[in-house]
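Summary for the steering committee. One of the milestones for this cycle was to obtain a three-dimensional model of the protein with NAP bound, which we needed before selecting residues for the alanine scan. The sequence and ligand used are listed below.
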Amino acid sequence: MDLKGNTILITGGSSGIGLELAKRLAEHNKILICGRSSEKLQSAKYAVPSIEYLQCDLALKNEREKLFEWIKSEHSDTNVLVNNAAITHNTNFVDDPEITEKAELEIAINYLAPVHLSKLFLPLLEKNKSPKLIYITTGLVYTPKVAYPIYCSTKAALHSFITGFRFKNTNAKYGIIEVLMPAVDTPWHNGNPPKIAIPVEQAVQEMLSGLNKGNREIKIASVKKLYKISRLAPKLALKLINRLD
Ligand SMILES: NC(=O)c1ccc[n+]([C@@H]2O[C@H](COP(=O)([O-])OP(=O)(O)OC[C@H]3O[C@@H](n4cnc5c(N)ncnc54)[C@H](OP(=O)(O)O)[C@@H]3O)[C@@H](O)[C@H]2O)c1
């Protein structure tokens, strides 16, 4: 993928991986971002003045449509959609009285939103040069971490969707790319990242290098090893992932 001259929409580009991606790509591309918090969006704009943003909540169908209308009317040259926004709840399925509401929210943001946005955006992306749909997922699609009972299953579902979508459209004009992240030190961890978390700069550098090489499934850092272990010894992978903090 040519990393210059694109118009790129990054969902959840106001924090963490999305924001680092925006910073790295802004010099040679037009960058558009969205998120729920106006304050975070304004700080991102302060950090990267050339970006443009829309405040929206991707949990809601009509807000996803609002995002698409904004792009269609004001940035119709958009050729890359990065489905990055997500949330998680660190919880215990059995003891949590609000688990159903949490599950509904995670399914809406982490799974339904990228699927719905892909459907909305594809015809518009295809009108432009080098269209790409990029999805940020996680090594936990291969083996779940029990502390995130809903998150892991939403990302595994998204991984399944992406794999089938790409297989069916191997010769399409558009590219379908999945980037599988390990633990990354971002605000996601609320100031308490796991010891194994890698710096966000490293995660995004590896992602850009994979995109540059034209890879369609980009496993970042330790995800390569986790993938192999989960295939060869699935029970061991499950134990290892749930022992790490
Ligand atoms: N950090 C990790 O260890 C890690 C590991 C593996 C995979 N990942 C994946 O990497 C991606 C980015 O994570 P991150 O670490 O950069 O997290 P982050 O720092 O918490 O950023 C998440 C972004 O998503 C936005 N967002 C969340 N819910 C939204 C909604 N309903 N509508 C619109 N925007 C929404 C947030 O903005 P608002 O809160 O203002 O809406 C924020 O901009 C996610 O897909 C995550 O699953 C992260």
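Key point for the committee: The mean pLDDT is 97.
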